[in-house]
């Protein structure tokens, strides 16, 4: 009987650079992302410490294309995927190795207010390219009263009728 195993990574952090979209010779989209996660703790002596961990994320196919379109340096995301270690020989002949997270789910956690050029709301994307969004409800700016074309006397203001359309709420 085969034993079960689990290779799952869940991360929430900020992108350290803009996504890099490339295509394999077969035409498959691949996007690499840099993600930073922070942790803080207090030592026994009461000193506060902080540490940053940097992660290399890789998305494939439709998810890769969506990541390159929707993400930018500084965005806060949730990413879910699996650890993968790769080995290769560099152009200089040196054997190299890297461990990366191959993501199959990604959710944008910040809003349009933080990144005005981006779409509003939270956006969730799966490896299959399924896109779901939760629009962020933004309150409209209060309506400014129209500037009068002429100055009115206080007596005219008291006698003027107020229509329902004139009330800003």
From TrEMBL:
InterPro entries: NA-bd_OB-fold (IPR012340), Primosome_PriB/ssb (IPR000424), ssDNA-bd (IPR011344). Pfam families: SSB. Keywords: DNA-binding. One of its GO terms (biological process) is DNA replication. Residues 119-169 are annotated as: Disordered. Residues 144-153 have a biased composition (Low complexity). One of its GO terms (cellular component) is nucleoid. PROSITE patterns: SSB. GO terms for molecular function: single-stranded DNA binding. Residues 158-169 have a biased composition (Acidic residues). Homotetramer. HAMAP family: SSB. This is Single-stranded DNA-binding protein. The lineage of its organism: Bacteria, Candidatus Shapironibacteriota.
């Amino acid at each position: 009987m085969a034993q079960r195993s689990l290779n799952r990574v869940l991360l929430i952090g900020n992108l350290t650079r803009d996504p890099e979209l490339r295509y394999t010779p077969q035409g498959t989209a691949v996007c690499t992302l840099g993600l930073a996660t922070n942790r803080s703790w207090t030592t026994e002596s009461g000193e506060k410490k902080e540490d940053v961990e940097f992660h290399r994320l890789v998305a494939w196919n439709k998810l890769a294309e969506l990541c390159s379109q929707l993400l930018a340096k500084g965005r806060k995301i949730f990413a879910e995927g699996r650890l993968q270690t790769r080995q290769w020989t560099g152009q200089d002949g040196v054997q190299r190795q890297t461990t990366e997270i191959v993501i199959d789910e990604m959710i944008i956690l910040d809003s349009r207010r933080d990144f005005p050029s981006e779409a509003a709301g939270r956006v969730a994307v799966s490896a299959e390219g399924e896109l779901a969004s939760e629009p962020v409800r933004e309150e409209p700016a209060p309506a400014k009263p129209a500037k009068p074309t002429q100055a009115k006397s206080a007596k005219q203001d008291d006698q003027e009728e107020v229509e329902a359309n004139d009330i800003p709420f």
